[in-house]
Write a structure and sequence with these properties.
With 131 residues, the chain is mainly β. It is built from 3 helices and 11 strands; from the N terminus they run E-E-E-E-H-E-E-H-E-E-E-E-H-E. The strands form 3 sheets. The chain has a 4-stranded antiparallel β-sheet with strand order 1-7-10-2. A 4-stranded antiparallel β-sheet has the order 3-4-9-8, with no helix packed on it. Strands 5-6-11 form a 3-stranded mixed β-sheet, covered by helices on one side.
Length: 131
């Protein structure tokens, strides 16, 4: 059984996800097998100083909590993005320091797009995230 692969972007209407160079200094398509993890990258850029997050791999739950007041609202409220479900273009685990992140070294075809109007509301509705 193949797993779903998710990429989130502030850009709507993409049919191919192109390679981008991020903090790893390598060109990748960044994605996750976990929708809740992918959604966390649809808002404003944040760091480990802003949020505390960890995954319980026995239950699948992701603990995601504010490191200081109102950073959740600032980062996600009213932000729009698209969730892209992707084809598997050879995604690999363990290539970056982010434990839920997978990467591909090839441009990747979009299977489906879901537009999100308010990212904060979308994240709040996910059962796997404990706040």
């Amino acid at each position: 059984m193949s797993r779903k692969i998710y990429h989130v972007s502030k850009t709507h209407g993409l049919s191919i996800i192109e390679l981008h160079i991020c903090s790893h200094d390598k060109a990748y398509v960044y994605a996750s097998y976990h929708l809740e993890t992918a959604l966390l990258f649809g808002g404003e850029l944040w760091t480990d100083w802003d949020f505390i997050y960890k995954r319980n791999y026995e239950t699948g739950e992701l603990t995601f909590s504010e490191a200081y007041p109102n950073i959740f609202q600032k980062s996600f409220k009213g932000k729009t993005c698209s969730i892209y479900e992707l084809e598997d273009s050879g995604f690999l685990e363990g290539q970056t320091n982010m434990w839920d992140e997978i990467v591909s070294q090839k441009p990747t075809k979009v299977i489906r797009e879901i537009k999100i109007d308010d990212l904060a509301n979308e994240i709040r509705q996910l059962e796997k995230i404990i706040r």
